């Protein structure tokens, strides 16, 4: 039987100190195109988003979202980058984090949070991703 594109690999990951607080880091090399982790949580309807605690909301369909504010969801520690090394994708109702390039041991995992989230939460404070902060120097 053929393995699904969305089969999470058994990669060693750690939560650690990052430029933006906490981040998710690779403890080993992860190849390009790998499925690293699933973004998990409680499925909520769009109208319930306002009552959800935190900013770990991930849209999975037109009116459905995942509230990723659960202890088991280490994917919630993946920070935004304007030049990401991962991207979220998946079948309806699920979100998997896939690598866009080879990830080195010790490298932080990042993905682009998207225009709506960026404009609402990141842009007003100023983007602190590595691409934006190093280009300011």
Write a structural description.
The protein starts with 12 loop residues before the first strand and ends with a helix. It is globular. It contains two helices and ten strands; from the N terminus they run ββββββββββαα. 26% of the residues are buried. With 137 residues, it is mainly beta. It has a three-stranded antiparallel sheet with strand order 3-9-8, with no helix packed on it. A three-stranded antiparallel sheet has the order 4-6-5, with no helix packed on it. It has a domain of 95 residues: Beta Complex (Beta-clip-like), CATH 2.170.270.
The run of helices and strands is: EEEEEEEEEEHH
Total helical elements: 2
Report strand %: 25-35%
- Please state how the strands of the largest beta sheet are arranged side by side: 3-9-8
At the first level of CATH, what is the class of the domain at 13-39 and 68-135? Mainly Beta
Shape: globular
Task: Return the CATH architecture of the domain at 13-39 and 68-135.
Answer: Beta Complex
Mean pLDDT: 88
- Spatial gap, N to C terminus: 51 Å
Number of strands: 10
CATH superfamily of the domain at 13-39 and 68-135: SET domain
Supply Rg. 15 Å
Predict the CATH topology of the domain at 13-39 and 68-135.
Answer: Beta-clip-like
Largest sheet: 3 strands, antiparallel
